[in-house]
Recover the amino acids of this structure.
């Protein structure tokens, strides 16, 4: 199945019946699949909104009403959605937002890129908040993480971003969908707007004029973010046991880096791969421990160097960090990356 | 002794924070009365705006979900699509529904989204201190049109209700005012009618309510009510703009 | 064993479905596979290409550095991809459309007048399946059963006649010598 179709199918299997979106390449197969599939379900609703702004606000409304809701877009459209993502965070509403990232800034192009890393992991909109950011690197993982995203969103009442790119959205691999997520693991939604039947009226709001109360709200969010940081960090390692050099990459770039690592291993270089699966919470602690053992780090991203800042923070001055980036929608080959890796490795005489 | 006047069930026992002479408190009360009289309290969900009425949930004892500025009708679309058997309304000012939220308003109406918009038109941005709104009249003085609104610089006041009436999805649109006892009674009727249209699943309904803003208009409350009568109504005439229920009857 | 193939041509030559059928057949055969298409407006009228990787093991990168095989359907594709083929690799060339030949001496070349054969079948659109049949005969990467199943599934919505025509085109390429 195609990556974009997998996301859509996984969402439906996770119980999502409400999709609100606006077309943009390279993610159009998600709304197209949703339009078709949801129309066949009795309780399915698909709305093509007039803009990404409208779509994300429909998501807010649907989430307030207690439903599992999703929207998807690509970089320029995600910029428009940032307003709503800030509100979702402030209002503590669960929702899943997919970004099939493309080259930017501005209109950019439609080729695969990872240039929205900062936007995704730093909050992206106004105010002091974080969103859970999941970065799949294969079609199988698109299925798994999309389904998990709905659980995470419900458990923590927070928006979850699936951060992939045009390449993952367009490519096809065989995929097996995991068993349906267990909705029982999600807490009951006792906060939704349903009409004040036999109870006082309920307000879901983010306007808190009293700075003392707004500060308390921020602390409350922060405590939640700390819980997420403790419990939800995910990463994958490849050939790290004897590694003298660690390549750090996520998503599509990690896929290419993995190929590059295999190549340099054939040359006898002891290189391993560390792949963050959650970009926020970033697996900084694990990486920091790795920095006590390994002295050379190689960060590869399809942007001008964004995650590398998190790696720097995680290592806290330990080890040397070399960065290699290809922005603008360029997808380098494993050979190209492997050449840079081996030249760095050999220069350091490891 | 017979009780002839009391607080509606859906209105909380909280003093309004609105300025003296402001129309919001009147509309809040009318809304609460309609909700009670039609027995809607347990199925109604309101969407307050960014604007003076953002704190509507302090006064109305119903479920309410706050919207980003201008996005009320989109947010209400999400609510209504998930819960089609609830009564969903937005409460929006002129800046909210007719400036920043124009696209959302037009497309929600055009989809025939089965929700109701209450559009409070006070011809200025009240909450931010009286700046020029899309509905500010030509010549009207505001803090951002200090010499009066000028058509070459600022364009014309927009008639959103008439625009929305052109969409095939809108079912009922009426413009009323809350500047006199007679107009207030008509406003209440219009709100009830709009809700009825929604309950009958006929499509998008909207009531535009001309509402006094004496503080920002630099007038007394009395003068403000008079100004609506003498000036605003000339540009924004009162009455039913669209009503598909009438058309159905004619057929 | 990891094998990567790039299929390339201009939009409308069925380059993407060629790669798709191939990848699908590999999946039917129980192999690991990735299919990476070019996408967007560029595929309509412009040059289109896709990369298919198949392997017995998990596939690291779906992007090909130097593919073992390249299928070129038109002139621009030949010039674009002749330098990336792995030394000792094979190029499959549509001789109906391409006059030039690769300048490299370290790759093998197989030619087939795919358009002419497709025309002979009465429908030039199936040029891609002719080429695919030829490609699979020479490489033996996937089974014929796998391709049959892939063709049946991929074109099932378009009706039996289309499936039959495509299978016929595939066989024409497969038996070409």
């Amino acid at each position: 199945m195609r990556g974009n179709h997998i996301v859509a199918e996984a969402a439906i299997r996770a119980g999502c019946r409400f999709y609100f979106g606006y077309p943009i390449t390279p993610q159009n197969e998600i709304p197209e699949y949703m339009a078709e599939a949801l129309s066949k379900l009795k309780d399915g609703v698909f709305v093509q909104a007039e803009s990404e702004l409208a779509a994300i606000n429909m998501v807010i409304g649907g989430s307030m009403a207690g439903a599992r809701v999703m929207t998807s877009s690509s970089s320029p459209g995600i910029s428009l959605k940032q307003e709503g993502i800030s509100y979702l965070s402030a209002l503590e509403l669960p929702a899943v937002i997919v970004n099939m990232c493309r080259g930017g800034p501005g209109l950019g192009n439609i080729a695969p890129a990872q240039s929205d890393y900062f936007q995704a992991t730093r909050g992206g909109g106004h105010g002091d908040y974080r969103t859970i950011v999941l970065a799949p690197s294969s079609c199988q993982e698109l299925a798994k993480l999309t389904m998990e995203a709905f659980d995470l969103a419900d458990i923590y009442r927070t928006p979850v971003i699936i951060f992939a790119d045009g390449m993952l959205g367009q490519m096809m691999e065989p995929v097996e969908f995991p068993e349906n997520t267990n909705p029982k693991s999600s807490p009951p939604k006792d906060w939704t707007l349903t009409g004040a039947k036999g109870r006082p009226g309920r307000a879901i709001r983010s306007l808190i004029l009293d700075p003392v109360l707004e500060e308390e709200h921020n602390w409350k969010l922060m405590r939640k973010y700390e819980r997420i940081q403790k419990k939800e960090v995910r990463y994958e390692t490849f050939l790290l046991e004897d590694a003298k050099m660690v390549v750090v990459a996520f998503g599509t770039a990690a896929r290419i880096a993995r190929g590059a690592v295999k190549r340099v291993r054939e040359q006898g270089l002891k290189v391993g791969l560390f792949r963050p699966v959650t970009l926020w919470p970033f697996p900084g602690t694990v990486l920091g421990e790795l920095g006590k053992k390994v002295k050379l780090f190689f960060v590869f991203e399809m942007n001008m160097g964004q995650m590398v800042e998190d790696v720097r923070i995680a290592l806290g001055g330990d080890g040397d960090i070399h960065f290699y980036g290809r922005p603008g929608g360029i997808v380098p080959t494993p050979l190209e990356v492997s050449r840079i890796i081996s030249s760095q490795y050999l220069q350091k005489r490891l | 002794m017979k009780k002839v006047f009391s607080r509606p069930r859906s209105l909380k026992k909280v003093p309004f924070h609105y300025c003296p002479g402001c129309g919001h408190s009147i509309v809040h009360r009318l809304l609460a009365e309609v909700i009670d009289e039609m027995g809607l309290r347990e199925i109604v969900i309101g969407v307050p705006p960014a604007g003076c009425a953002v704190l509507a949930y302090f006064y109305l004892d119903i479920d309410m979900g706050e919207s980003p500025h201008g996005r009320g009708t989109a947010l209400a679309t999400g609510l209504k699509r998930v819960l089609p058997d609830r009564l969903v309304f937005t409460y929006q000012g002129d800046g909210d529904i007719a400036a920043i939220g124009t696209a959302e308003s037009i497309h929600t109406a055009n989809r025939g989204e089965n929700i109701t918009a209450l559009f409070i038109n006070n011809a200025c941005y009240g909450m931010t201190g009286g700046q020029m709104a899309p509905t500010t009249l030509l010549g009207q003085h505001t803090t951002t049109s200090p010499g009066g609104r000028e058509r070459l610089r600022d364009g014309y006041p927009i008639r959103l209700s008439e625009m929305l009436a052109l969409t095939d999805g809108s079912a009922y649109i009426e413009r009323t005012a809350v500047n006199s006892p007679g107009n207030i009674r008509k406003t209440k009727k219009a709100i009830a009618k709009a809700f009825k249209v929604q309950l009958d699943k006929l499509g998008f309904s909207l009531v535009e309510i001309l509402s006094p803003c004496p503080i920002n208009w630099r007038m007394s409350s009395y003068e403000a009510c008079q100004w609506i009568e003498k000036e605003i109504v000339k540009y924004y005439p009162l009455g039913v703009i669209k009503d598909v229920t009438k058309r159905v009857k004619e057929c | 064993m990891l094998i990567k193939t790039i299929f390339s041509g201009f939009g409308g030559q069925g380059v993407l479905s060629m790669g798709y059928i191939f990848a699908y057949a590999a999946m039917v055969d129980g192999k690991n596979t990735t299919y990476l298409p070019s996408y967007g407006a560029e595929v309509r009228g412009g040059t289109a290409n896709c990369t298919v990787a198949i392997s017995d093991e998990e596939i690291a990168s779906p992007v090909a550095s130097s593919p073992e095989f390249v299928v070129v359907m038109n002139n621009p594709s030949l010039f674009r991809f002749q330098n990336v083929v792995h030394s000792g690799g094979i190029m499959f060339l549509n001789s109906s459309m391409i006059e030039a030949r690769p300048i490299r001496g370290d790759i093998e070349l197989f030619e087939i007048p795919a358009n002419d054969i497709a025309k002979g079948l009465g429908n030039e659109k199936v040029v891609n399946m002719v080429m695919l049949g030829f490609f699979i005969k020479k490489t033996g990467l996937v089974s014929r059963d796998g391709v049959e199943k892939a063709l049946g599934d991929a074109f099932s919505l378009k009706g039996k006649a289309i499936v039959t025509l495509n299978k016929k085109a595939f066989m024409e390429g497969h038996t070409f010598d």
